[in-house]
Amino acid sequence: MLCSRFLKLDHGRQHGRAYRTVEEGYRSMYRFYERTLLWVMDHRRATMAFSLAILLGTFLLYKIAPKGFIPSEDTGRIVASTETAEGTSFEAMSQHQQEVAAILGKDPNVDSYTSSVGSGGGVSSTNQGRIIVKLKPRNQLRLSADETIRELQPRLARVPGIRVYLQNPPVINVGGRISKSQYQFTLQSPDLSVLYSSVNDLLEGLSHVPGLQDVTSDLQIANPEVDVAIDRDRAAALGVSAEQIEETLYDAFGSRQVSTIFTSTDQYWVIMELQPEFQRDITALQNLYVATSTGTLVP
Question: What is the CATH number of the domain that holds 107?
């Protein structure tokens, strides 16, 4: 009874152009499928041989095709992250970086490179650096990016005082974080003491895992530092405040802008600090004098 209400008589009904076009396409596919099915049934041996060839080709492609999460591809670029001991000065880091850059520049597979030292661009301290290496075009008979990395690693490992981490950057950077390796593992803990000890344990364990190399951490907590304790009673007796002592230390070992020189086309900041040889020597603290409120210098 419901069918009599909803179904309409379709015999003799004229359909529109769109309907006829879709219907004709469907009938064409049906006729094509019918012809191919009849051909397959008439050539069963050839069909089975073709199916077997596809199966064997699938196994072959499975073995030779890259199977990583993001397969390594040669984009003509290599990223080198460099690192020296914590507390290394900018001058010493620059010297080590130049030794690494000289080796890269002499490699026949390298076209050019850009070297940077210090914080910024994924680098967090002065004991770290980064080198962006551009490889020569493939038509100049160079090695691939991965082969170039394997060829450079033993030579760069012989440079004393610095470690170099080479990686072929993936086409898609998952996570967007720049690091010294392609794969990263993040540790988090509300207890800093537990976190610091766990990092060392994890590094020790991963270093013995076969197949892993250049295992490292971005935890920087071994930087040399000096704690200065202020004798407030003696400082008060000499007329020196804690703020004046802090300002003097910052003037000596920080980077304080004390003036600006203006020219017709540019301006230059004047930075006051100790000479580099005194900044690296803790005994330089004995040569500092603090100005009191009356202008007297107190050692």
Answer: 3.30.70.1430
Choice among 27-31, 157-161, 282-286 with the minimum mean pLDDT? 282-286
Among 6, 29, 60, the domain boundary falls at 60
CB 74 within 8 A of CB 144: yes
Domain count within the chain: 3
What strands lie across the sheet with 110-117, from one edge to the other?
Answer: 110-117, 128-135, 77-83, 163-167
Which residues are within 8 A (CB) of 274 and not within 5 positions of it... i.e. 6 or more apart?
Answer: 252, 253, 284
β-strand pairing of 110-117 with 128-135: antiparallel
Residue span of the structural domain in which 157 resides: 77-181
In sequence order, which residues have a C-beta less than 8 Å from that of residue 203 and are 6 or more positions away?
215, 216, 217
Same domain assignment for residues 56 and 86: no
pLDDT at 121: 56
Per-residue model confidence as pLDDT tens digits over 136-147: 888 876 788 888
Phi, psi torsion values for 241, nearest 5 degrees: -95, 165
SS3 120: strand
If asked whether residues 106 and 159 sit together in one domain, one would say yes
In whole angstroms, what is the distance from residue 239 CA to residue 242 CA? 10
Residue 66 clears pLDDT 60, i.e. is over it? yes
Q: pLDDT, tens digit, for every residue of 69-114?
A: 667 778 888 888 888 887 777 788 888 889 999 999 888 888 888 8
200 or 293, higher pLDDT? 200
